[in-house]
Amino acid sequence: MSRRTPILAALLLALWPVGLRAAAVRSAPLYPAAAAPWSAAIGGALQMTPGAAPLAPALMPLASPALIPGAGYAPVVAQLQSALKLTPAAFAALPAGEQRVTLELAVEAAQSDLTQKVYELAAQAKSLSAPDKGLDKVGRAELYRVVAQLDELRTRYGPLMTPREVETVSDSYGRAAGRAWSIRGALLGQNAKALGAALAGAGRDSPTTPAAVPAAPLPPASGGARALADDMRNNAVGWRLNDLDRLLIGYGFTLNQGGKHRKYEYPGLKPEIVPRHTAVDPNYIKSALAAIDVIEARRAQASAPAPSAAERAAPPAQINLDDLAVLLAEEPKKSEHTPAQAVPAPPRAPATKKVPAAAAPSRTLADAARLQPAAPRPEPEAKPEPPAPAPPEPSAFQRAKGWLKNPFGPR
Q1: pLDDT tens-digit profile of 307-323?
Q2: In what order do the strands lie in the sheet with 261-265?
């Protein structure tokens, strides 16, 4: 078994609840789509057979072309299954008259249920879209769910709702989708300064950076330079240095005389350096024309009207829910380091063997434990001196020698 297998297994187990929560948010429609047998059974009950009575007003929404079978029948099928405990086969076995009566009861119950869901989602959309409401990961997932379910209401069940409910759904969807889109832009880094505001609320979803100072307008090119550029585009051969001077200086280049070269400079562009020859190589002409194309593109971009802040922040007409899936992402971690007061540096550790950069652990200022002063070490206890070794026993020769030196000493 590879060493990586236990690590991968542990990682999958750790990420499993997160994946389940994300899947639950993404796959939790108001009503699951009706199965094909249900669509066939309801469609058969709505058919106008010869001699059959016309559809009752309660059944007209089911016959609307805007109500897509399967998806649009979902609220009615939910009532047939939950309230009336019917299966597609049992419903198809009913007489035609009883089928329509059963459908009328299911449509009325479905419309009542839709009304309740419309106003519940409208209240949630209003609360979550408030500019001063902070949204953490749970709040953003809730906003994603509200947008998805409001989109389900407005695209599938319009014929089953009253005109006032349709208008309420449309307004609530626009409000919630706009807030979700602004947070999406912040999370994707399109508005880095407002990232904290989009997550923390406080009415700061709009950019907080000051408006950029508009760049100075580019000077227009002379008429002679434009005509000369058109001629050079048709044929880049046979031009002289004075022709190149008229072209580039006419477009705003500055000529700097050199020794063996002539240098044409323009802000933000690579200088055009041409050797001092009477005839100019066609490659230098093509390079000058490419620089002129860049200048013309800049001038066209500068003259175009800039989109307003509202236009930049407004969501597109059709929002793909997959684009809003970034609302389920984790929040960026904030630094825990707060330089409120200076922390004394710990005593220097003794020199150790250097660790290679690839294997060295990363050190961050957020690790508060590393910034705390080290606790003083207790003084070491004094150890008793070991007893002195006993002197060796003198030999007989040494005792005789000592007696001769001091006959009156101890024996």
Answers
A1: 555 555 566 667 777 77
A2: 254-257, 261-265, 272-275
Asked if 128 and 264 sit in the same domain, the reply is no
Say if residue 273 is in the same domain as residue 149.
Answer: no
Residue 112 near residue 159 (C-beta atoms within 8 A): no
Residue of 179, 203, 204, 184 lying closest to 194 (CA atoms) = 204
Q: Which domain holds residue 282?
A: 223-303
Q: Which of 273, 303, 333 is the last residue of a domain?
A: 303
- Name residues whose C-beta falls within 8 Å of residue 61's C-beta, 6 or more positions apart in sequence: 67, 107, 159, 160
* Contact between 170 and 154 (Cβ < 8 Å): yes
How far is the C-alpha of 183 from the C-alpha of 196, rounded, in Å? 10
Q: How many Cβ atoms are within 10 Å of 198's Cβ, its own excluded?
A: 22
Cα–Cα distance measured from residue 315 to residue 173, given in angstroms and rounded to the nearest whole number: 11
Q: Given a cut of 50, is residue 22 above it in pLDDT?
A: no
- Whether residues 230 and 190 share a domain: the answer is no
Q: What is the pTM (predicted TM-score) of this model?
A: 0.49
Quick one: tokens of 173? 């969807």
Q: Report CA torsion sign: 266, 271, 273, 279.
A: negative
pLDDT in tens, 67-94: 888 888 999 999 999 888 999 999 989 9
User: Across the chain, which distance is largest between two alpha carbons, in Å?
Assistant: 158
Give long-range contacts, CB 8 A cutoff, 24+ apart: 289-294.
289/229, 289/232, 289/233, 289/236, 291/248, 291/266, 292/221, 292/229, 292/247, 292/248, 292/251, 294/269
Of 186, 206, 204, 198, nearest in space to 135 by CA: 198
